[in-house]
Each structure stands twice: as structure tokens, then as C-alpha cells.
Automatic annotation (TrEMBL):
SMART domains recorded: HTH_GNTR
Pfam families with a match to the protein in the record: GntR, TrkA_C
Protein name, as recorded: GntR family (MngR)
TM segment ranges: none
Species assigned in the record: Fructobacillus fructosus
Length: 211
């Protein structure tokens, strides 16, 4: 992500203001000519001129024709530095927020790709092993409980074939039509994806915990 870069002349203006605040340059003192300031801070004369212009616009210094630059106000130099610091903090906060947004977008993209991969893998497993059973626990308040598989006509109503019932710690394999489905039972069945929703609707009339 590109970083906001502070102009060089603005940084030199802050350096001069800092020298005024720390009394390295006294109020009323005449600073060197722009060419000397340029050499002192290792910048071009044009950069030094722009820095002085920034300070002059804020009444911190005053260019005096033929005799350099006069320092006018330590207080305004202090205010300039405080504003510059706030501006940097604001830019840093803005950059941090943009970085967080970019990271969040990247995470969401990765999550979407992982979810798509999971769906694809699940579909392949189902295709390779269509008899892989689903697991379903009916709601304890379901009106379909305490009735036999045969009387409920589960296959006719849902397309699901019950292959086992887990009652407490007893697993009943291939339960016949006379086996009752009791509260707390876990039903294992095979069928299509449509039968999953059909079982949910048949027993509870809503979405439930089929695995």
C-alpha cells in the first residue's frame, strides 16, 4: 500500500520551527540566507525557499530583503509543530484503517475460497459415497415422536431410509417398521440432499441439526 510522503520542504520547515521552539534560534534573530540554510539542512535552495515561505505564511519568520530571515514568534512555531504532529497522526490512522480494510477483504476472500473448496469436497464425497449416512436428532417436542417408523411412512414422506437408531447407548441397526422413535433418539439415514430438508420439515417443521 503506498504511503503518504511528506514534502521535503515541509519537513525542513518543521526543523527550523523546532530550532525556534528550543531557542536555538531566538525571536528577533536573523537567520542565514536561504542558500546557507539549504547547505545547513542538505537541501536545494528552492527547497529552503519553500520552507521559509511556509513559515512566513504562518508569521513565524519574515524574509528581510538583503539580510536573511528574521524570527518572529516562538509560540506560532510551537503551534505549527503541534498541527504538523496531529496531521501525521491523522495520516497514520488513515493508513492503518486502510490496511485493516485491505486485510479484512483479503481474509473474506480467503474464507470464501475455503468455503467453496469445502462445498466442492463435500459434493465429491457424496458422489463417491452416496450411502454416507446423515445424523438427525428430532426436537423433543415433535409430534412425530413415540410412533413407529412404519406408521410414520418416513420413506414415503421424506425419501429417507433409516438405517439405524441410537437410543441412549444402544445402537439399533436396520430398525424394522415397528421400531419406535423416542425423545432423545439419534436417527441415522441415507438419501438425497432433498431428503435432508424433508426430514427436518417432517419432524420439526423447521431447520434442525442434521449432520
Amino acid at each position: 500500500m503506498p504511503k503518504i510522503k511528506e514534502p521535503r520542504y515541509h519537513k525542513i520547515a518543521q526543523d527550523i520551527a523546532e530550532a525556534i521552539v528550543t531557542k536555538k534560534f531566538e525571536v528577533g534573530q536573523k537567520l542565514h540566507a536561504r542558500s546557507t540554510l539549504a547547505a545547513t539542512f542538505g537541501v536545494s535552495a528552492e527547497t529552503a525557499r519553500k520552507a521559509i515561505s511556509v513559515l512566513a505564511d504562518l508569521d513565524i519568520v519574515r524574509p528581510v530583503h538583503g539580510s536573511g530571515v528574521e524570527v518572529l514568534s516562538r509560540e506560532k512555531a510551537r503551534d505549527f509543530l503541534a498541527q504538523a504532529k496531529e496531521s501525521r497522526n491523522l495520516q497514520e490512522t488513515h493508513s492503518q484503517i486502510k490496511a485493516l480494510i485491505a486485510k479484512q477483504k483479503e481474509d473474506l476472500t480467503n474464507l470464501d475460497e475455503s468455503f467453496s473448496l469445502l462445498l466442492d469436497q463435500t459434493q465429491r464425497v457424496r458422489q463417491q459415497n452416496p450411502m454416507s449416512p446423515f445424523e438427525f436428532v428430532p426436537n423433543n417436542h415433535s409430534e412425530k415422536l413415540n410412533q413407529s417408523i412404519g406408521s410414520l411412512n418416513i420413506w414415503q414422506n421424506t425419501g429417507a431410509t433409516i438405517i439405524a437408531i441410537l437410543h441412549n447407548d444402544d445402537l439399533i441397526l436396520s430398525p424394522g417398521p415397528y421400531a419406535n422413535i423416542l425423545p432423545g433418539d439419534t436417527i441415522y439415514f441415507v438419501g438425497s440432499d432433498k431428503s435432508v430438508e424433508a426430514m427436518q420439515q417432517f419432524f420439526d417443521g423447521k431447520q434442525n441439526n442434521i449432520k
